[in-house]
Write a structure and sequence with these properties.
Layout: H1 4-12, H2 52-60, H3 63-68, E1 73-74, E2 85-90, H4 107-111, H5 116-136, E3 144-149, H6 169-184, E4 194-200, E5 213-214, H7 218-225, H8 227-234, E6 241-243, E7 247-248, E8 251-252, H9 263-266, E9 276-277, H10 281-284, H11 295-305, H12 318-330, H13 335-351, H14 374-386, E10 389-393, E11 407-410, H15 432-440, E12 445-448, E13 452-458, E14 464-466, E15 477-479, H16 484-487, E16 489-493, E17 499-503, E18 509-513, E19 516-521, E20 535-538, E21 543-547, E22 552-557, E23 560-565, E24 574-580, H17 582-591, E25 595-601, H18 621-633, E26 637-642, E27 658-662, H19 669-677, H20 706-709, E28 733-741, E29 751-760, E30 766-776, E31 787-796, E32 801-809, E33 815-817, E34 822-824, E35 828-837, E36 840-849, E37 863-864, E38 870-871, E39 876-880, E40 887-891, E41 896-902, E42 910-916, E43 923-929, E44 936-942, E45 951-957, E46 966-973, E47 977-984
Parallel strand pairs: 2-3, 3-4, 4-6, 5-7, 6-9, 11-12, 11-25, 25-26, 26-27
Antiparallel strand pairs: 1-2, 7-8, 10-27, 13-16, 13-24, 14-15, 16-17, 18-19, 20-21, 21-22, 22-23, 28-29, 29-32, 30-31, 30-35, 33-34, 35-36, 37-47, 38-41, 39-40, 40-47, 41-46, 42-45, 42-47, 43-44, 43-46
Helix pairs in contact: 2-13, 5-6, 5-14, 6-8, 11-12, 14-19, 15-19, 17-18
Amino acid sequence: MVSKQRRRLLASIGAGTSLPLVTGATTARSDDDGTAASGNETDGETGPPFDEQVAAVLERLTVEEKVSLLHQYQPPIDRAGLDAFRTGTEALHGVAWLGEATVFPQAIGLGSTWDPDLVRRIGDAVGDEVRAMHNATDGGVGLNVWSPTVDPLRDPRWGRNEEGYAEDPLVTNEIATAYTDGLTGDHPDYLKTAPILKHYIGYNNETERTTTNAEMPPRLLRDYYLPFFRDPIESGTAVGVMASYNVVNGRPMTASPLLSDPIREWAPDPNAIMNVSDAWAPLNLTGAQEYFDSDAEARAAAVLAGLDSFTEFDADNSTTTDALLGALEEGHLEEDDIDRAAGHVLTVRSLLGTFLDPSEDPYAHLTEEVLGHEDHRELAREAARKGTVLLKNDADGALPLSEDDTVAVVGPLSDRVFEDWYSGTMPYRITLREGMRDRFGPDQLRTDVGADRIALREQSSGDYVSASVGKGGGGLSLQRNDAPSVQLFERIQWTDDHWTLRSTANNRYVTVDGDELVNSSEGPGGWEVVDEAFEFVDVGGSVVLHHPSSGNYVTVEDGILQAAAEEQSDAARFGIEVRTDGIEAAIEAARDADAAVVAVGTHPLMGGRETQDRDRLALPHSQRELVERVSDAQSDTAVVLQSSYPVHLEGVENRVPSMLWTSHAGQETGRALTDVLVGDVSPGGCLTQTWPRSADRLPDITEYNVAETGMTYRYGQDDPLYAFGHGLTYTSFEYGDLQVSPSAPLQAGETATISVSVTNTGSRAADEVVQCYTSQRQSRTDQPEKELRGFERVHLEPGEHTTVEFEIEYDEFSFWDVTRQQRVVERATHSVLVGSASDDIRVQGSIRVDGEKIPPRDLSETTRAVDADDWSWDEIELLDRSRYEGTVVGMTDGSWVAFHDVDLRDKPTEATVSVANGGDSAVTVELRRDSPSGAVLGRAEAPPTGGVYEYEEYTLSLEQATGNNRELYVVVRGGDARVNTIRLE
C-alpha cells in the first residue's frame, strides 16, 4: 500500500551526518518484557545518522531550545528557521474538534467494511482536510495526527470500543495501514500528515486506566498484542506511537523500553519515529502510578525508554522543560539523549516540509474548499453503506423493502444522527427518516420516534415544569398554566438508568448550567459524564430526578429547577403524566404500513465512553419493548441497530425476521441505510468483533490474557451471539474447488497459495467477504483455535463467479517460542478453512509445513520465570524486574510456574533461583516434579532481600531430578516474592 518512493525515502534518510541514533533500551533488549531480540542486537552500536539538515539544525540549537522541542507545543525558534509546531490533531474518522469537516463512520464501522482500498481513500480525504485547515490557519492546525486507534477490540465493555477496528491483528493492520497510507499522501518525498498510532500497548479499559497492570506473557505479547501496531510502522506510513496510560507487566507504558524495541526495529528509518505521550500521562509517573520519586527522574526515564514528546499542561511547556533540564543537571540524562529525541521530532517535521520554501510545498493547493467536498460526501455515504452488516434475514424476511410499499420508520434513532467524542462537527446530517422520506416520499412514510412525551408535575404545588421557547432555551421553572407547547418533554432511555429529556418547546435537550436545569443543549456531550443524562428514581408513586454528572438531585428553589440537593430526601417529587405513549404511537404507525423499520441502539456518549467502561451490553428496556411490540403488530419488521459496540439483544433477534447493524455512521447515515434497506446495494459488511450473548459471560475487563480466558474468536470465545466475520447478504454464494499448493511440505522461504472458487448463486448483485483461516493441528504448546490469514471483499453479479487467491508466507506460520525466546515454525499440518465467517466455513483443506521440532527445555541455561509454559494465573502477577527493564513473576503463597518437556537426563544436582523478597519474613522456594503438589526435588529459604528490586540467588540441592520430558514446578510458600530466573546445574 505504501509507495515504493516513500519506502526508499525513509530507508535512505540520513545519508551523511554525524549524529547517531542509540535508543535508550538497546543494551537491555534481549531481556525486556519478553521481547528478546528477533532482529539485530545493537548492544549500544550506532544506528543510522540523522539527515544532514536535521543535524545542522540540532548543532545550532542550545540545550534549552532542544528541550523545548520535546513538548506538545513547540515554540518558534526564529534563528534556526523553526516555526511553532504542535503535535496532536485528532483525525479518527474525520478531522475532530476544529469545526465543520466531513464525518465518516466510526472506526469500528470502517473496519466492518473489510475494504482497505475504501479506507485508504477515506484517509486521503481526511489528510486533505487536515492540510486544508493547516493552510487556512497559517499552521495553527497541526499536521501530526493522533490516529488511527489500533488497540485490539478484545472486550466490548471498553468505553472506547468504537475507536478500534477489530479483535484481529490482520484486519486491523490492513485497515490501519490503508488509513495511514491515505493520511500520508502519495508524494515521494513529503508527508501530507504524520500519523501516530494509539494507544501503545495493552489499553482496553477506562476504569482505573492509569493504574491497571495489563499482564501479557511473552508469547501473547509477541503473537497477539504487538502485531496490531506493526504494519503501519513497518510500511513507513505511521511515524510513531502514543504511549498508553496503563501499566504493562508492572511498568508504566510512558516509560517502557517497548517504545524503542520493537517500534524502531520495525521502522524503515528509526530516526523517523516520534513517540508521544497521552494527554497528561507523564504526571502519572509520580502521581497515580507512584513509580518515580521526582519529575526529573520520571521525564528522564521516559526519554531513555523512547518517548520523544510530552503531552502535558496544554500550551505551558515549563514543567516539562524544567524537569528535563533538571534531569540533565542531576545526571539522569546526557545531552546526547536530548539530541536523539529532538532529532526524532525534527526528522518528522522535515518530512512534513518544515524546511521547505512555501513555493515548494506540494500540499499548498489544498484550501478550505476541500472541507466537506462533494467527493468526500459521496465517500462518506459509500463507507456507511459498506460498513452496514446484515445480522439476520429470514427467507421471508422484511428486507429488502419494496419501494411500492408504505413503510413505518420508528424508533429513537430514526430521526437523529449523533457525533461521538472524536467526531468532527458535521456540516449536515441525514437521518434515517430523511433518507427514507427522500426515497419513498412523504405519502408512503409513517414515522414516530417511539418515545413518550411527558409532563412533569411538582407534587407539593401541583404546578407543571415548563421550558423556554427561545432557541437558546432558558431555566426550567414551575408554572400554573396548562400549555402543552412548553410542558412536554420527549423522554428517551439510553441505558437502563439514564434518560434524556428533549423539550418540545424548542427541540433542545435539558442540561444543567451551574446548578440550574435549562433546555439549551443541542445534544448529549461533555467530558467524562454527560450533563444531559438523568435518572428517574421511583419513590412510591412519584419520582425524583437524579443528575449523575453532578451527583445531585433536582430540587425547586423559588420556582426554578436546580440540581442542588445532595440527599434524595431533599429532592423535589414529581408526578409523570404521559401525554403521548411513544410505543403505542409507533405501533399505530406500523399497523398503518406494509412494513416497519425500527431504529434502536446506543448513544455514543452514554453508557460507556472515554473514562467510563460499561457494565452491561443490553439494549435498555424501553427500546426492547418497542421492538417486541412493533414486531407483534407488524410481521414485516426490520430492526436497524446502531451502536458503538456489540449489543446484548436478550432475544430481540428471535422476534424479528430481519436485522441490520451499523456503527454511528456519520453525516450520510440516513441515505446509506436507505440504500441498503431498499436493496440499491446488498449489505456486505462483516463483524470484526465477536458478539457475546451477555456481559455476564465475559471475564474481568482488566484480564488481558485472552488466551487464558478464551476471548476473541482466536481463543475460542464460547457460544457467541454473532461470530467474528459474520455478515449476510441479499443473495447466496457457493464456495468450491479449493486448491492448496504446494502439495509437498512448505519449505522456508516458500509461499503457500490457497485459491477458492466463489459463485453468486442468487438473484442480486452483492459483495462477499471471503475469509481464509488456518488452524495448526498439533504443537508443543497451545495454539489458537484458528487464525485469519487473508480476506478479500469481492463483488459478483448474479451467476458470476471468480477465483479468490490467498498467499501465506512460510514465516507467517511462526509463533513465539518461550523455550528459546525466538520465533519458530513447527513441523506440523495446518487445516485450511475458507468461508464467509469464522463459524461459517464452506471449504476445508490442509497444508503441511516443514518446520522444526522444538527440543526439550534446557534449564541448564539461565531461564526467566516469565518464560514458563504455565502458571497458577489467578495467583501470580507479571511485574517489572526493575524500573527500567525486564519482567519477573510476582508470586504469592502456594502459587507456581511450570516448565514443560524439561530434559533432566544429565541429572542436575542443584537449582539456582533468583528471587527478590521485599517483605519482612522469609519465603520458601520449592522445585517439584509433575505437579504443584508433586514430589519435592529441592527447596530453599529466601529471606528478605531489602526491596522488590533487590535480587539474590538461592541454591536448592536436588534429589531425583532425572528423566526426560519432565514437568517442573517452581512453587513459593509462606509469602510474596518476585521470581526472576531459574538455572539447573
